[in-house]
Amino acid sequence: MRATLEKLPWPQAPKQEPTAPAAPLGVREQQQRLIAAFLPAAEPAFIARFAVLNLVGAALIGAAWAEGVLFKPFEADGTGMCYLLCALFGWGLVCCLRRDWQSVRWAGNALVYLGMVGTVLGLIMTVSELSADKAQSFESFKTVVTAIYVGSGTALYTNLLACIGYLWLGTNAHLLARQEV
Fold it and tell me: Which residue of 3, 61, 73, 149 is most buried, as measured by CB atoms within 10 A?
């Protein structure tokens, strides 16, 4: 059997002559090749779906502004959590546009967890001002009511913004990733 195998013709690789190295690329050409390799091509249909879906949300934000309730969460929150939630939401929308669905999912989950942290932080702010040893005067009553107002505002508004952001990002991810719009 070995003798038979030795008699079989084995394919030989064609001999190639060495080629000259390619001319070095300029900076612009390198950038264009990197962009083409790593960024997905933006198809107009996806951009249109993204725009329509988020224009509906922008219209709702405009309606909240017209009613004067758009900035209430930021006024009531003394911790800055509402700004952090909005920044994370904006980053999630950018990830939707880039079709980075893993990052969109991460941003949505982080919004929920930060909303819970804001709720607990607001409750801690509320409870920290309540004590039984304060004298029963009108001034101490005003202090307690103010603490309840500030803490509850932080707790509820951070939770509200987190829920809205999570639903908005989830809707974007669900409808755009599956091309169902």
Answer: 73
